Amino acid sequence: MKQQVLNDWPVGQIVVVPHAWRGDGLLADIQAKTQCRIKAGLRAMYADLIEQPLPDHLERLIAQLDERMRGADER
Amino acid sequence: MSVDPALKDLMLAALPNLRAFAISLTGSGDRADDLVQDTIMRAWANIDRFQPGTNMNAWLFTILRNLFHSEYRKRRREVEDSDGAFAGRLKTQPDQQDRLDFDDFRSALAKLPVDQREALLLIGAQGMAYEEAAAICGVAVGTIKSRVNRARTRLAQLLHLENDADLGPDQVTKAALAAE
From CA B51, how far away is CA B53, in angstroms rounded? Predict the structure, then answer.
């Protein structure tokens, strides 16, 4: 026999959900772990980018600017 | 007029960090290289404005950031996830790895508002002090703190790390599953 759907929830009644089994300490722990992972991920990603070899044109740029400036001074 | 060799060395030394910041900010290697090149040329042209003894890195980051906002942002070429491909890919739970996948990270970063992204990069990745980042961005320290906080929260959402289930099963659960 099918259960009848009850639709007699009183309007305006406040529903109180008992505190879940997990405590606030656990939630704080989860948030701290999440932030640690984000921080570690961010640092690792950044370190990976820093270790990438520079493109030649960027590596030569400062020397070229220097030469250009010296050339202009000599003129 | 020639440039002090010590300043040239400082500029050279800053290049990898500038490029990493630019790539993270723009989400594009080519754009980042253009941005770094423009930054160095601008700095070189204004080297007489640099005060010896002050922080060359911070000065260069400020120039790069200003160039990004004044020229590059106008083009409105920020990385977008119009087809939702990135979001779909992120639904895959990280495989209990300590370090999240770099590509996922870069993609998630690209989805952050640019003011939050730059604040998070300067503080969280570059390791700058809040005061230093605030000076670079031209805002109050409290604003930087707020942006970093919002960026971290948003990043956690984008990477689906906002609850314990997304942190992966604990060791006991994994052991129990393995024993089945």
Answer: 6
Reading the block at residue A70, the tokens are 């010296």
Q: DSSP for A8-72?
A: -PPTTPPP-PPPPSS-HHHHHHHHHHHHHHHHHHHHHHHHHHHHSPPPHHHHHHHHHHHHHHHHH
Give me B93's structure tokens. Answer: 């739970």
* Among candidates A38, A57, A70 on the partner chain, residue whose Cβ is nearest the Cβ of B156: A38
- Check pLDDT > 60 for residue B173: no
Q: What is the DSSP letter of B93?
A: P
Statement: residue B44 has pLDDT above 60: yes
Provide the whole-model pTM.
Answer: 0.71
Q: What is the ipTM of this complex?
A: 0.72
User: Identity (one letter) of the amino acid at A32?
Assistant: A
Contact B98 A40 (CB under 8 A): yes
Task: Tell me how far apart the alpha carbons of residues B99 and A27 are, in angstroms, rounded to a whole number.
Answer: 21
